[in-house]
Amino acid sequence: MGWKADASAVSYLANWEMALGWFSKKNDGISPQENLPRIGTVEGPALFRHREDEVLLSYEIAPVDGGGNVILAFSKVVYFEQNPNNVHEGLANSKYPVRMWDITEVPVSDRTERWSCEFHCHRFWTISFNDWMIEIVFSSVRKVHEDREQISPDAALLNYMISLR
Q: Rounded distance, CA 90 to CA 68, Å?
């Protein structure tokens, strides 16, 4: 026999979800809680699957945040893809919320529902670059490296990987 909510509980939850915008087909998503440098608009990102369930992402830091590169390590990654997607033309056709040159957290989606359980919550981000969009479902993220050196994200990621040896 399943649990049944009374009408007031259902109404309360419905109002709460509507207030957060979760019922809209295409909500705006939210900014992640992490304080990360803004994405630059010139260089493309570099991705590397590291270990069994970790993905490293290197991206250009916007000049307003000091320039250079940052490398993020996503842990317990269950899904990721990188697609060509021009910010001026392709973002409007995206299935999930995404903002130009930004990181968008999608709090409720089929991606998180599929992979989360009561013991393990997953997060879903869309990340937009000049000509690429990344979708990633993960449990945690941390900044593992940041520098002001004016090199490509690929070179920054390679330098970081070499430093791990």
A: 27
